[in-house]
Amino acid sequence: MILDDTAHIDVTVLLDGKDLRATVDTGSTRSVMRLQAAQSIFGLDEKSADMNAIEGSKGQEYRHPFHSLTVGDIQVVNPDIVIMPDRRMSRASSKPLILGMGILRQLHIYLAYREQAIYATAAEAR
């Protein structure tokens, strides 16, 4: 875990085999990827066959069927990630991915700020 200049928590995740930096955002109800990141990392754009257009609260958004998101040793299968044009994304994070509560609620998380580490287990692994 790394704290950025604005005290947001950044982590490295593995999304469908690709390493990404992601911002942990408990204030976001859903996880969001920047369209530019989807294009450069996964070769996805608005016209890709498996990009499904949806009408979002801020206009056109997309969904792509990602298969797995791994945080440390924990894997989230079929993560629900909305792909949004960069111009509509929050300026709070310039990272390619924001991990919102849709994914975070599947984890039990302990933040150790002094160690700069996140400890997590799957929510059903009590």
Summary tags:
10% helix, globular, 2 helices, 12 strands, 126 residues, two-stranded antiparallel sheet, 10-stranded mixed beta sheet, mainly beta, Cathepsin D, subunit A, domain 1
Present the secondary structure layout.
Blueprint (H helix, E strand, L loop, with lengths): L1 E2 L5 E7 L2 E7 L6 E4 H8 L9 E5 L2 E5 L4 E4 L2 E4 L3 E4 L12 E3 L1 H4 L2 E6 L4 E6 L4
Parallel strand pairs: 3-10, 4-9
Antiparallel strand pairs: 1-2, 2-3, 2-7, 4-10, 5-6, 6-9, 7-8, 11-12
Notes on the structure:
With 126 residues, this protein is mainly β. It has a single domain (2-125), classed as Cathepsin D, subunit A, domain 1. Helices cover 10% and strands 45% of the residues. The chain contains two helices and twelve strands; from the N terminus they run ββββαββββββαββ. Strands 1, 2, 3, 4, 5, 6, 7, 8, 9 and 10 form a ten-stranded mixed beta sheet that branches. A two-stranded antiparallel ribbon has the order 11-12. A hairpin with a 2-residue loop joins strand 5 (52-56) and strand 6. It is globular and about 45 Å long. The two termini are 23 Å apart. The model has no long low-confidence stretch (mean pLDDT 86).
